Amino acid sequence: MDKLVQHSSHDASDDDGAPTALPEYTERLATLEGSGIKRLLPTQAPYRWNIRRLGLGRVLDVGCGLGRNLQNCSPDSVGVDHNEHSVATARARGLNAYTPEEFNASEDGEPGRFDSLLCAHVLEHLDQDVAEDLLTTYLPSVRPGGKVVLITPQEAGYASDATHVRFVDLDGLRDHAETAGVEVLRAYSFPLPRAAGRTFKYNEFVMVGRLRP
């Protein structure tokens, strides 16, 4: 999945030793995109629909990886990721993507330039305090009243990746939202009911919130 792992993106303190920052991780993401049943069936269709139906406007995709979610957002949306190899791949796909240092130095790094923040399959890679710092760092990029979407894997998906460090369920997402000043509008299991998450690797926790003015 798509990742951003570092302590504070705007101060350029990139955690270069993180496994998700390595070129091998980018290669793994690319391999997973075309593996197994994904080669034959449109398995990403429900997830594309879920992102598009939220009406997110101009999105800042934190931990954009190769751009799997970014490509389903409005064309003027922007991704940021600490893996420079993943950023290069996203750009090669025609997407707007930055490393944290590049983002901070750009006009897009100025406050309030986005309608929404998306952070999908990232928080489970971070200790709680680091995850809180990540959200605190990027939420000022969203206009007051803008949307915030947080997505994490359920049990089977969590167990499928050795770089995961913390299981974040719906209660955990609500806690992150409360700490970050985000009003929770909806929290749900997708695409299948909650019980499926114990065996179906691609079931997700999804929280949709609104940034309080």
Automatic annotation (TrEMBL):
It is an enzyme of class 2 (transferase). GO terms for molecular function: 2-polyprenyl-6-hydroxyphenol methylase activity; 3-demethylubiquinol 3-O-methyltransferase activity. Residues 1-21 are annotated as: Disordered. The keyword Methyltransferase applies. It comes from Streptacidiphilus cavernicola. Transmembrane segments: none annotated. GO terms for biological process: methylation. It comes from the Bacteria. Its EC number is 2.1.1.222, 2.1.1.64. InterPro entries: SAM-dependent_MTases_sf. Keywords: Methyltransferase, S-adenosyl-L-methionine, Transferase. Pfam families: Methyltransf_23. This is Class I SAM-dependent methyltransferase. Residues 1-12 have a biased composition (Basic and acidic residues).
